[in-house]
Amino acid sequence: MFEPPVQRLIDEFARLPGIGRKSAQRLTFHILNIEDVDASRLSDAILDMKKKIRLCAQCFNLTAEELCSVCADLRRDPTVLCVVERAQDIAVIEGTNQFRGRYHVLGGSISPIEGIGPDELRIRELLGRLDHEGVTEVIVATNPTVEGDMTAMYIARAIKPLGITVSRLASGLPVGGDLDYADEVTLGRALSGRQEM
Amino acid sequence: MHLAWLRLSGFRNYDSLEIEPDIGVNILVGPNGAGKTNILEAIAYGSKLRSFRSSPDESLVSTNAEAAVLRLGIERAAGEGRIEIELPRNGRRRVLFNGKRPQRSSVLAAEFPVVAFLPDDLGIVKGGPAGRRELLDELASQLTPTTGADIDQFKKVLRQRNSLLKQAGRSVDVMTLDVWDERLATFGARVLLHRLTLLTAMAPVLRESYATVSSANGVLGWRYDSSWAAGCTPNTPQSEAESLLREALLRRRERDMDMRSTSVGPHRDEPTFLLDDRLTRNQASQGEQRSVALSMRLAAYYLLEERHGRPPVLLLDDVFSELDIERADGVMALMPRGQVFVSSAREDEVPVGGRRWSVSGGTVT
């Protein structure tokens, strides 16, 4: 047990994901040794972010404004919507520079075990946007897990009757890798999702 | 493939243990309660990621440790492999294979196949169908990694569907249930076809194994009873089996909503073993049942050896005291083939020579 103020910070760090007891101690003792201004900068950054960041009114991406930078960008194609589980996923897809449409963040995937059904996700909001924004194509980019696949199927069923094209991200081989390094399940999916040349 | 070294800490009665077993026969001798079976259990855990005694993970952690750590070095055709498992008293299990998290828990079953003969194997024959389903699914995963993935996925989907029914019952959202049914049908059909394929491949091996362990006449065969997949064979197209399960789920839907669980599917099917046309479960003598149990393990061993081109690691937990000479011969036929671990309270009960390890009070020498 350390002095109460030290222990308090250790406990707070240890609550964070991926941080164990030892890392929490290391971080705490690092902060103990830095200048006061550096410590204030860190605590200000945390508070400032918590104060300013909210969810985009349209797609539920993170933003400091009313609309996120993607939704506010008039050059983006409003007829194509990419549906993701979490806001972090948007940054990854943006990194590809290949997608010029807009996003919709569901906030998770359907998982009855965790008590998450369609109503706990932003699926109703998604359906509302389709009509309102004149969307003609939806790309479902949920994770390739049992729950992500399920969520994708659910969305496809809900959207298909509206005459909107629905597609799912292909899953397959990592680029630049050797075939014999791919695991069998990935390879199996790549095989069943093969493309004609 | 064989176990090159084993290191344990905080596992059962071992504070810390390090052994480098022989690549042939290893005989663990020691009094009852000395910890012989614990070593076999640790080796099997490295392959199956669960206790062969069906003990929960927490109970594997020794009373004066915060976590049990198992490390296994395996020698295989593709080079050395390292399995590391940490079982904390509280919190999540951590598994690493060659320093990385395996993509599925069934990866190790195929990388490090282990066949264990256990004193209560008789339960597979005498007990309910759950034990036989598990035996088949486990063996199918050891034979082909993709099969293990299908079985894992089926179980996940089933757990989710049951959880949905449990929460909502009659007020369940029909479209959500539809989608889970779709997935359950896809993976359920695969599990069925994997089992039927395995049973078909196993049949001749099973017949032969039974003939070697039993002098009594009788042909050991199997039957697969299923309320939804009657008439299916290993050659039934996947799509056909899928529609059968989809329809069965729909027929039972009302009932499932009331019962709040899934009443039809491969998890309710009943694989049975037959001696001629008698059910081994309740129409065979105790001696015959023992031979049948032994034959199933032997068949598993031979199938794995054939598939991987190398024999699996064999674990014999105190089996010789239960076997008469005739049946022991069937087990003995496996002895020179690959790496073996035998546990016994009395060395003179083990009808084979090998590296002798003396086990007592948490140490092995």
From TrEMBL, chain A:
Ranges for domain Toprim: 79-174
Keywords: DNA damage, DNA recombination, DNA repair, Metal-binding, Zinc, Zinc-finger
Pfam family, one: Toprim_4
GO BP of this protein: DNA recombination; DNA repair
Key word DNA repair present: yes
One Gene Ontology MF term: zinc ion binding
Protein name: Recombination protein RecR
Phylogenetic placement of the source organism: unclassified sequences, metagenomes, ecological metagenomes
